[in-house]
Amino acid sequence: MNSSRVSILHGLLLASLLCVATFQAHAEPPKMVHVKPSTPEGFTLQTFTVAEHPEHTVELFVYMPDAGGPRPCILDIHGGGWKSRQVENDKPMMERLAQRGYVTALVSYRLSTEAPYPAALYDCKAAIRMLRAKAGELKIDPAHIGIIGGSAGGHLTGLVAMTSGLPEFEGDGPYPEQSSAVQAAVAMAGPQDLVTPNLERTNEGTKLFLGGDYQSRPELFKAASPITHVRPGVPPILFLEAELDSVKAGRAEMMEKLQALGIDTGIHTLKEAPHPFWMGQAWIDETVDQADAFFKKHLGKPAVE
Fold first, then answer.
1. Dist. CA 61–CA 269, nearest whole Å
2. Average pLDDT of the residues of the chain
3. What is the C-alpha R_g of the chain?
4. How many domains are contained in the chain?
5. Residue 18: which residues within 8 A CB-CB, separation 6 or more?
6. Structural domain contains residue 87
7. Rounded (10°) CA dihedral 215, 221, 222, 226
8. Considering the entire predicted model, what is its pTM?
């Protein structure tokens, strides 16, 4: 082969590689395809009333196995900026976790448009107490309950976990004889520090949730931040984040505090994922895999019929 032909082929090869590299650099990330809920075979979805308030009836939606003995339980705390109810959006994730051998549940807590903080926190803790109170009926192992939540639900998940065992965060809801402590938590794309992002200008959603801005209620902002309550004995927590998301306030600093205390924590980032990655493909299966592995580690291996 003469030198001119070799030169031409070499040039074509370089051009081809350049085109591939350019395409990859400008390729759009996968689009979110929302998954619709569908109760899996072998489970029954039941609805329970946790508490009735003038502004909202707090409900608990439980995926119960039709057969089998006590299983670890995972409670979902939905997102929506504390002001939108997104229980339906989280059901597909909880259905998939149920199929891994857990009893799974979702709570419809009071939104910020219905009652400001700490109403949502109190409702989540009341739901956990109810799960323990009805453990026999729901086929739950009451000693092994975990929580998971994304966005505003990720914040509440962190707050419920970090305030485990602190009576001043219980509220006056039902089943006061039961514990609201959890044994593991998975917080997804939710702020763990409400102070730092709101020092100069308070986000409107946070202002509605906490009933004012940081300047007027600094101690409340601190009390409502999960990072404030990190201390010996809090449960292990895994953080799941989207690569394309910016909702990460306080996560790194909170992990440092947990690690200094020897409390198991970790971070997993979902590549090319948008903020609500747990709601659909191409990321719901990866989310469930990560959460399942963490819960198996800390709640025990669930029974799969």
1. 29
2. 91
3. 22
4. 1
5. none
6. yes
7. -160
8. 0.90
